[in-house]
Amino acid sequence: MIVAAVFLIYGIILFVEAGVAYQGSGNRQPLIPRVVSGTILLTAAVLVGFQLHVQLGASIGVGATLAMLGNFASRFLKSKKTMPDGLMLAISFVVLVILATQVFSR
Questions:
Q1: Domains of the chain: which residue ranges?
Q2: What is the pTM of this model?
């Protein structure tokens, strides 16, 4: 259940951050991958939370989180800006740590 909550919260954070980034720059380029990843994470949360396909949902969610971690790491290394790229990089890393502790604690 914690895994579903983490996917849900992280997906919502991605949606909010995408909206803030779009309003700030007016550029659709960073908007699209964040909205798509947020949707994928919400789908993973539903799959895990309602126990429809737990392994599939967890795999999809971890894959999307890893993709966003790579995206934010790349953007942070290029821009060196802590807002929003550094913050989202840290959040992505924390999400992966939480997911790893949940998977390996069983």
A1: 2-104
A2: 0.91
